[in-house]
């Protein structure tokens, strides 16, 4: 099984909650939710039961329907059906794909109050309104997101644990890696751009190093997502599909803000609000919103009419980019890997950085301003993040982040941004393919350190 950071979060939740709350793990399909909770139950408890509501046996449904008011009998029947003895305060019950049977989620309130066992729920598309319309959401439920593997987890999967550890130490000390290790890390980063972080795709690549096989897996996942759109998006399905298909084209532009006119000349934002909400809520995309004032509390200054739309996984973005053909052969991927085939690498790199920030629990913001009469006021910063600032007693400050896919680039927007908003800013970062460089308030990091921010 792939090593995931989610395991540490689950162990920490078990320690802190001590049976006083259930945990709901939300995420897109195929990101590894079921796998990680099964491993958690197997390694951290004396016993566990996993109830898969996507394939709920009739007899188990009857137990939920008929015994919910008698929890002692309820547990006895579950234990008997799954041939698993339950131990008070040392057993876990997993409600897998709980959105398929909302009544089980409503029961969590009483199960937690009973206190005999621990409960983890997993769900895909779980917060879409149709899945919770007729139930009371339990207040005893803590939510946590799970996404695809970030770059550090990809390194672990590739057997590069020591390199991953060295990258973190290099970042913390602002001390560049030796050239040989830098080249190795950049090679891994380029592989990550193509493979992405979907567990099934990563596992296949680790096993066989076959990009063609990986592409088949990613296309299967994209087909699954397409089926989900048709099944769950209802009246917005056409708009959702239109947005999803346009993401590669939108990100390939110099200015990556999403323009609805690319879908239809008559498209209006109010008509597409629900479709974008659906995609973000289903964890299929990462929306990056324009914050018009670079102050701590970026969400207070959102301009909802200006946003960028990234795919949740960069590997899926690559396969979606080549959607005009049925398959993408292994040698095409290898030509991209070794820079022998032209591809807009900028869109992949920026999408991958967004993926790292979301994996760290960050909401995504950028800064954009256009002034046709004064070029000194026109600028665009790829990302704004909040970080503690060492020159302000570790108080939080805004850090602008620029992402560069080539070794030669300019920083005019970053320079303007510092001149105008310097008093609000902490460190500023440039993520680029080159070695780490630290120059006062500006730190240039290799792209493979994005997950450290």
TrEMBL record:
Pfam families: AAA_14, DUF4143. Transmembrane segments: none annotated. It comes from the Bacteria. Residues 21-155 form the AAA domain. Residues 227-405 form the DUF4143 domain. PANTHER family: ATPASE. This is ATPase. It comes from Bifidobacterium margollesii.
